[in-house]
Amino acid sequence: MAMSKGEKGRIIAHVLAGVVIILKGVTKWEDHHAVLGSFFLLLGLLLVAASVWHHQLSRWIKNFDVLVFAIEALVLGLIAYLYYQEGKQGLPWVYGLTSVGYLILMVIFSRRGVVSKARVNHE
């Protein structure tokens, strides 16, 4: 079954967020912050895996995209805070605004009651 343009966009957004989180995990791991690095690596890998199996998971988890956008927004906000603590100038703003963008997407999708085509076809 072909995916809609919107569904492809959501999957790409989830994959990109997952990759960014994985990269932050690698950076933290290299800086000898094993617990935080492992947390980011695991979460990033889970987000990428959830994106790969988006079609199947959205059948079983109501508001799957809302849940994933919420997790991504929280983690990207945490990354913004960590960059701020490290004394970075621009990166906290970029990650902070991205986090706000994901929160806005979460609200939009939760208010629309977006249900993927897979879930509609499954029922």
TrEMBL record:
Keywords: Membrane, Transmembrane, Transmembrane helix. The chain crosses the membrane at residues 12-29, 35-54, 66-84, 90-109. The keyword Transmembrane applies. It comes from the Bacteria. The keyword Transmembrane applies. This is DUF2127 domain-containing protein.
